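Can anyone check this?
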Amino acid sequence: MGLISGLLTLPLAPVRGTAWIAERLEEQAEAELYDESAIRAGLLELEAAREAGEFDEQELADAEDALLERLMEIRGLAGEEGYGGLE
């Protein structure tokens, strides 16, 4: 970026900084959403809640299904990426 263009776009610096932060937050959220260890930990927490009787069976089944769907989605994405890399 040249000196003139840098000076002219200086008022946009806060907007660029905010956009950069938003992109980093999105990347972090996706990393946490698709982290297998976090899903496994969630399943263990559900099992502990089942043993403690904190929730009814339907609530536990729904939460367990959601976690398992995320896990299958992750493994499906990983399989597609691995397959695509072979071509």
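Reply from J.R.: I decoded it. The mean pLDDT is 84.
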